[in-house]
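Reviewers of the previous submission asked for a worked example of the structure-prediction workflow described in the proposal, so we include one complete record here. The input consisted solely of the amino acid sequence. No template or homolog information was supplied to the procedure at any stage.
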Amino acid sequence: MTWLSKLVRIFKDKELRKKILFVLGLLIIFRLAAHIPLPGIDVVALRNFFSDNSILGLLNIFSGGSLTNFSIVALGIGPYITSSIIFQLLAMIVPKLEEMSKEGESGQKKINQYTRLLTVPLAMLSGYGMIKLLQQSGRGIIGQLTTFDYLTTVIILTSGTIFLMWLGELISEKKIGNGISLIIFAGIVSSIPGAIQRTAYTFDTTQVINIAAFLVIGVLTVAGVVYITEGQRNIPVSYAKRVRGVRMYGGFDSHLPLKVNQAGMIPIIFAISLIMFPSLIAQLALRAESDIIVKIAELVQRLFQPDGLVYGILYFILVVAFTYFYTAIIFHPQQIAENLQKQGGFVPGMRPGHQTADYLGNVSSRIMLAGALSLGIVAILPLIIGPITGVSSMVISGASLLIVVSVVIETVKQIESQLEMRNYDEF
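From that input alone, the workflow returned the following structure tokens.
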């Protein structure tokens, strides 16, 4: 089935067409909310501050681009993502949460409820911290606020995050991609026309080769990200024949897919959070009364500039390290080996149990090296492309590129699966 025929089938299917239009409508609502600034904000001074401070541009990724005008949804779904990561980690440490995660759908609903509840205080802390950061920027972005103004602004920002979280869940219910990812995707894509416009304003004939080189590198990078995202190692698995009564079951061969990049974009999120922390603290310390503290803050800012060598090396190391760390949390060879043994499956040439678990662990570690290195390269991609092409106005972060490609792949797969389900029902 060609892409054109698939598109025709999608829009001919009334139910699927309604789902897609519903999702597009919610994304439009999100973009409208992202353009409603909070009262008392100097939007021009805010945008100038963000253009001069590139480290804050990373924060703008998970706000869906709404942080640059400090809209009512300025925090985006960053606090919700942080809360989700916290509970993913706690589920591996706290026995009660681990048992809950194994209870199936009912347990997952409880964890999701806890995640939503934790999002509220995280959003309030993030909102208060962002207000203080903008106040101490010295740009006159936010004037003096009373206690009531602080409380009102924090409540609005927190409500905006909860609103986006609700929109994301509504989108996910339609099974047209992951709602949270699509919201981030919409924010990233909405910034592309502005980047093209800035490039057009500064364009001259001497930049033709640089722009051509940028486009070629961009296409190759997207192809590489797709290749790594879809890459997997198939472990052969055989199932022994079982006789129950007068019937024989099993006796077939299958495979166990191991993704090259099992961690997805989580390692980049972890790395961004850590690599930005010193710069944000230094930003707050620049207006301290002590000269020593100010000098230390200036040194930290110089070292952790996003286009600096120290920043690039640390960012790459952190992404690679977190890839191994997070994969070790979510991938359990011993549990997989036990499940295979219970189902009568085995890896040819390997004894069920510990030997199978050790084999799966070794294979995962080997293919994980390729996934970790590829994630690290994608993360520092702007540091490489910028000096080579000289087209800094169109460079987007590696995290943004990974999110865009991953969301497109996931959404296309879910739409195709719904088409297949309808094919099966018609048959």
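The first strand starts at residue 232 and ends at 239. We consider this example representative of the routine output the project will generate in years two and three.
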